[in-house]
Specification:
Layout lengths: L21 E5 L7 H10 L1 H6 L2 E2 L12 H4 L3 H5 L3 H16 L2 E5 L8 H11 L3 E8 L2 H14 L6 H10 L9 H11 L3 E6 H6 L4 H10 L17 H13 L15 H8 L2 H14 L4 E6 L4 H14 L3 E2 L13 E6 L1 H5 L2 H13 L5 H22 L4
Parallel strand pairs: 1-3, 1-4, 2-3, 4-5, 5-7
Antiparallel strand pairs: 6-8
């Protein structure tokens, strides 16, 4: 049976003044199971529709999410542009079918009051409900750095840590209370905060928990166990060095035309080549391997955790018990010293070989980019035909 949050969501401010159907916006953030959930929302779109929920297939940039709605939120305020037209059509479709609406994109969490106001004006009497997933910020931090490196980020871990750890309470990555506070103050929505770590501890699937406790749906099983696979640190660091040396275009605009460096590695390099990179970096470059230990008992971490509990505990699902949200054990992060790793002859040779393979004129790479553009055009065509 669903928890009470499914019919009276945690923090249901405004539920007494808005009636009718619902709009649920799942906003991440990154590294909280979002890709896994989005893949399942997309896969089970027909089952969700049968149970009263529309998860529209309108995205061009990615197949499973609604990033196109969050990439340029100013269009929602101006009431013109692709994002505005897409959202308007989706709401009209949901209204015509008398369906609740579910949208998911990490980009939604950057919305400001004017963006939420525009959404509320578009949705009429739909009750807006925002779902934010809280994960231990230290686990999320390292995972997000590795993900960025895999997709074209060039910063090494120490370089990435420096500004955030200089003042952790002012870092949105290390202090989720900053983002949650803005969300509660700016959105005018019902808000539920899912506790990623507690669900993991209880061995509960976050997708089925979301369906049960946010949408009020039972009986749909996840089809996929994982989504954004974390690569071994050796592969992550090698890809990061490839990005520095050669790279591929990055950013939202380029994502419609080019494969990022991680996909280039996945599709253009054979399993034998990837295994050689992994073994070479691990064995030949072992002297460059580093581990940094990050404490969870610093005054800043404990203050952040205490503020989350005191100010936002009533919005959390599963409800917190006691005075702790996160582990007390230190987090240990592994990386490679780039300068030292580059001086390893076997690694340098592999980087040189990879550079030749990722040159812009390589026919296989050109074909990969053209395939990406064809996929984008196909998604655009399906959307234009109303297939969402």
């Amino acid at each position: 049976m669903a928890d009470q949050a499914s019919t009276n969501p945690a923090g249901a401010r405004g539920a007494d003044t808005r009636t009718g159907l619902r709009l649920v916006m799942h906003i991440g953030p990154h590294k909280t199971g979002t890709t896994y959930m989005q893949s399942n929302f997309r896969h089970h779109a027909d089952s969700l529709r049968e149970r009263g929920w529309l998860y529209p297939k309108i995205s061009e940039r990615t197949a499973t999410t609604h990033h196109d709605l969050s990439d340029d939120p100013a269009q929602l305020i101006r009431r013109r542009g692709k994002a505005y037209e897409d959202l308007k059509r989706v709401i009209e479709r949901a209204d015509a079918l008398q369906l609740n609406l579910l949208l998911s994109s990490e980009g939604f969490r950057k919305f400001k009051p004017a963006h939420y106001k525009a959404i509320l004006e578009l949705t009429g009497d739909r009750r807006l409900h925002i779902v934010y997933t809280l994960r231990d910020p230290l686990d999320a931090y390292y995972s997000f750095w590795a993900q960025k490196a895999k997709t074209g980020g060039k910063q090494g871990l120490p370089e990435r840590m420096k500004p955030d750890f200089a003042n952790p309470l002012q870092s949105k990555m290390l202090n989720p209370a900053l983002e949650i506070g803005l969300l509660l103050n700016n959105s005018g929505a019902d808000v539920t905060i899912l506790r990623y770590d507690e669900l993991l501890r209880q061995n509960r699937d976050i997708f089925t928990y979301f369906l049960s406790n946010v949408l009020g749906i039972e009986g749909i099983k996840p089809y996929k166990d994982t989504a954004n696979e974390r690569l071994p640190i050796e592969m992550t660091e090698f890809i990061r060095m490839m990005s520095i040396d050669r790279g591929q275009p990055t950013g939202i605009k380029n994502s419609r035309r080019f494969m990022h460096i991680g996909y280039v590695m996945k599709f253009l390099f054979s399993e034998k080549e990837k295994a050689e990179i992994l073994v070479t970096v691990r064995n030949e470059g072992s002297a460059a391997k580093r581990t940094v230990e990050v404490s969870r008992t610093t005054p800043e971490f404990l203050m952040m955790e205490r503020r989350l509990l005191l100010k936002y505990g009533s919005f959390m699902q599963p409800p917190p018990v006691g005075r702790k949200l996160f582990s007390t054990e230190p987090s240990r992060w592994t990386y490679y010293d780039e300068k030292q790793l580059r001086q390893v002859p076997a690694v340098a040779r592999l980087l040189e070989k990879a550079g030749r393979k990722t040159r812009k004129t390589n026919p296989a790479l050109v074909l990969a980019h053209l395939t990406k553009r064809a996929i984008i055009r196909w998604r655009m065509l399906k959307k234009a035909l109303g297939n969402y």
